[in-house]
Amino acid sequence: MVELATSTGSDDPFQSVSNFFDSSAWSAISFILKAAVVVFWLALIYWTWQDARRRVQDPLVIAGAVALATFIPFLGALIYLIVRPPEYLADARERELEMVALERRLEGAHCPDCGEPTEQRFLSCPSCLRKLREPCSRCGEVLDPRWKICPFCETVIAPGLSPLETGP
User: In this structure, how many other beta carbons lie within 10 angstroms of the beta carbon of residue 153?
Assistant: First the structure.
């Protein structure tokens, strides 16, 4: 009978894997991975701080969100991400300003003297008789005081003069 040849190395099939984990290459890779995890954790803390400043007014809530991200690594930032306000403070302020402007537009104009409601086509206030607008000298349409030309008949309105005083 022929005997099988045996290998000259060790009999452990995982010896090469064990040698890799004992090598300096694995130590370097392990250090780089650990450093990357720490950098990612610090980046999440910084992102939480920046995002909370844009979304929350209360400094204590901002500090709490940052503490949560700091003391509960990775999970703290995820918890903040779930419970944070849905919009930025600047967006909320802009929306509120747009709502106020829209309410004013829908509410209609008011007389600058007495505060009574007026309409865009009124030439004078019906309550205090203050002159609000001038009619066009050519077509008679109500003109806005800021206009330089009548948009209906293209009559030029001279600066400093009322539309009644300008000619065609």
Answer: 13
